[in-house]
Amino acid sequence: MKTIVIGAGLSGLTVGARLSEAGAEVEVLSQGWGVLHWHAGTIDVLGADGGGRVMSPSAAIETLIATQPDHPYVLVGVDGVAASLDWLVATTAATVGLSGTIESNQVLISATGGPRPTCLAPRSMVGGRHDDTAPTLIVGLDRFPDFSANLVASNLNASGGTARAVDISIPGVTGRTFFNGVTIANALDDPAITATVIEMVSPYLGTEERVGFPAVLGLSRHRQVFDELEASLGRRVFEIPILPPSVPGMRIHRTLVELIGHHRVHEGMEVIGIESGDGRVTSVLTEAAARPNRTPGDRFVIATGGILGGGIVAGYDGSLREVVAGLDVSGPPGRSEWFRTRFADGKGHPVYRSGVGVDGRFSAPEGPDNVTVVGHTLGGTDAIREKSVDGIALATGYKAADLLMGDAGVHP
User: Fold this and answer.
1) Which sign, positive or negative, has the C-alpha torsion 90, 377, 330, 372?
2) Are 124 and 134 in contact (CB under 8 A)?
3) CA distances from 398 to 90, 271, 330, 392 (A)
4) Do 327 and 356 meet the contact criterion of CB atoms below 8 Å apart?
């Protein structure tokens, strides 16, 4: 049985990776890359609720399940969320080294030097705990607009820490007309460039016990780059998130794509329609120069990102439509009800809770019976506001993969 996954964000890649692990046949079609390229590279399971910052995701999810019956976590349960986290920790152990527990959030240093709660964090970030008052050197890069060492250090000091900022230049990198986080990360994969950074930072070290860098410490050689910096500087080293594209997120993305197989993950393939018969989808159609390409399958997984990812679009009349199979979307009935009057309304905006309603097998009740919906195409929550984007994507993809493996008669 062949499964076609539409979307290459965390939910789609989770489905694809778990099916591949079990030996099932799978292909992933993607118009572009998903949330891993745009978020911090951590896994936010539940960071905020109506009462403020969440410190125990497991306890908060229990409450959420009891009070919000349409929330995606209801489909998975606390144990299911925990199992998905354990799987991702094991899957990325050799590349990223994610760590953490559903019982408590880690509060790390944000891109501006403030506190940022998250559940799983890569090995390269766990040294950047916000409540650690140890003397800290924050290293920035000349002419790099996506990270301000001075801003981070200033905010750490304002919250009771002891931090100092310095900017360095990397010859051949920071002098370019254009460079971003990916450019720098690729450059640091060169051992000679890493050695240059060590040579330039070392004279600035004083009593500092830890050194924070923007999250660009290598891509394909990340673990080696990180270890070399810690060993040579003789200090705890940690990364701080920067503006997208997210290098730490790309490391997770690459790990999952390699597990699926690069030849099974197809970028630049926008699904524009389906073929169906007898209540089942038989193939999907993707945009091509002369005529649409046809990709047949037995099961189809929609992981297109919902209203913020382009998986749900709005018509001029305010109607909402799921773009792949035309599934029914629950949401505000008209444009006048999409948003509240105040932009920063504490209740959030109704339109962001829009999505496809599904049953316990992630199937839309009125949709084709071989279509599964995961991730943020599901409705029932404002995931950005509650800081659960990554957790919902991971947990629903993980649970749906379990069900699909059962249908295919394979096991992880």
Assistant:
1) negative
2) no
3) 14, 23, 24, 10
4) yes
Q: Which CATH architecture has domain 2-96+251-408?
A: 3-Layer(bba) Sandwich (3.50)
- pTM for the structure as a whole: 0.94
From the list 91, 61, 50, the residue with the least C-alpha distance to 401 is 91
Question: Where residue 51 falls among pLDDT bands split at 50, 70, 90?
Answer: low
Other CB atoms within a 10 A radius of the CB of residue 207 amount to 9
Least confident of 193-207, 233-247, 318-332, 358-372: 318-332
Query: Could you give the residue range(s) of every CATH 3.40.50.1860 domain in the chain?
Result: 126-240
- Rounded CA-CA distance 284/275 in Å is 6
Band (pLDDT 50/70/90 cuts) for residue 356 is very high
DSSP at 138: E
| Measured distance CA(187)–CA(141) in Å, rounded | 13
Phi, psi angles (nearest 5°) of residue 411? -140, 150
Q: How far apart are CA 386 and CA 216, in angstroms?
A: 27
Do the Cβ atoms of 165 and 140 come closer than 8 Å? yes
- Per-residue pLDDT, averaged over 211-222, amounts to 97
User: How many Cβ atoms from other residues are within 10 Å of residue 12's Cβ?
Assistant: 28
Cβ-contact 24, 49 below 8 angstroms: no
CATH topology of domain 126-240: Rossmann fold (3.40.50)
Residue with tokens 């450019």: 183
Where are the CATH 3.50.50.60 domain residues in the chain? 2-96+251-408
> Do 130 and 159 contact (CB within 8 A), yes or no?
yes
Residue 222: its H or E element: helix 222-233
